[in-house]
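User: Continuing from earlier, I have the next pair ready.

Assistant: Great, send them over.

User: Here they are, in order.

Assistant: Folding the first of the pair now:
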Amino acid sequence: MLTSRFEQAFLYACRLHGQQRRKGAGTPYIAHLMAVTALVLEHGGDEDQAIAALLHDAVEDQGGRKTLGEIRARFGERVANMVAELSDSDTTPKPPWRERKRAYLAHLPHASPDVLLISLADKLHNARAILRDYRALGEELWPRFKGGKEGTLWYYRELVNIFRQVYGGYLVDELAAVVSEIERLAES
């Protein structure tokens, strides 16, 4: 059951990300946060996980450690710990892309099942968006990603491999299928 805490988290996420847009597409960023949260709830996540899903990019994109402190004060230690684990950077400027991604990949096998569900939902939604945009834009898509085509494909392949080892299930199978389709189209 979702309580007023979830409503407060949704409003807080809207305040943090309200002016932010998704790379390239221009979609309001909150749509991504809502989609990730929906996947978490649809796959058994509890209210704290749903709140962490809404706020999973807040530290990276909207204020770093200060924002993490606000999340801890508003939503508690468990939510803050999940958001911290889901963040690949809490500093500005961010470390180099590949360095951040390698560290995130190295962390995943040690993450809690709560964090793995949110991370998997996030990566699945991102991969779906990449596939949709690649179908529309073709090779013009890749410059919007710091890792470019090769780096982005490497990262998603590695994510699939790790999630298969540490989590499994339907969402991993779907992520694998989406990534395989992206790779198939990119090779054409």
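And the other member of the pair:
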Amino acid sequence: MKTENQKAWFFVLPVLLLVAFNALIPIMTVVNYSVQETFGNNLFFWEGLSWFEQILRSDRFHDALGRQFLFTFLILIIEVPLGIIIALSMPRKGIWVPVCLVTMALPMLIPWNVVGAMWNIFTLPDIGLLGYFVNEVLGIEYNMTRSPLAAWITIVTMDVWHWTSLVVLLSYAGLVSIPDAYYQAAKIDGASPWKVFRYIQLPKMKTVLTIAILLRFMDSFNIYTEPFVLTGGGPGNSTTLLSIDLVKIALGQFDLGPAAAMSLIYFAITLLVSWLFYTLMTKDDAQ
């Protein structure tokens, strides 16, 4: 009987312990603050679950959560189809393959705060190239500092530019793994391009698309730096996503108890929706 060698765990165990430690301490600190009130000087007063009740009944929380879900929904319905279309259009062989791959990867290499600052300058109506072009050349009034619609269009466009490449690269990896024999058989059968995509390419991309959707959901649902640098949550509270509102409560108002409770609710919602996404997308694989 063949026995498995478990010695590799001794090399992985230190990393697992380090990651667990780095995750456990912050979570326990947040849990501690979520059930207590503090006014500084390391003085705490027991509050129980009152902060959770306050957050769940708060219209401010519901509005911010709704804006967060709306942003994530828009990101997914734009970036996933767009990423697939671009991946299908990319060459499979030749010298243009590395050129396309590098070009696709470039936006993801830019730091998040730099992306927000770039798009802030780019879209300003007075000095920004895009802002000037839309206002002066196209004659369309565009000012994200005054118009909530313009602000929403800007933050969504910014995220699409920044992260569609991730969907493209993952989809492309799934496409290049398909053997040529599948395409040859489809050509012999006279399959249309749609049928090739529906019955050959899409099933082969299912695994990478599951990863892409989960990554894009978690990242867009917890996004903070780019929209904060770009709009600061304005104009008014029109682009104040849940992540931005959470930071405002924690650092702006220094209400650590409500902020801790909100962050745990935020964390639970992210885990729940991610689990639902994964369960629905892998339901057929389990059968």
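Worth noting for the second one:
The CA atoms of residues 16 and 223 lie 26 Å apart. Residues 59-89 form the longest helix (31 residues).
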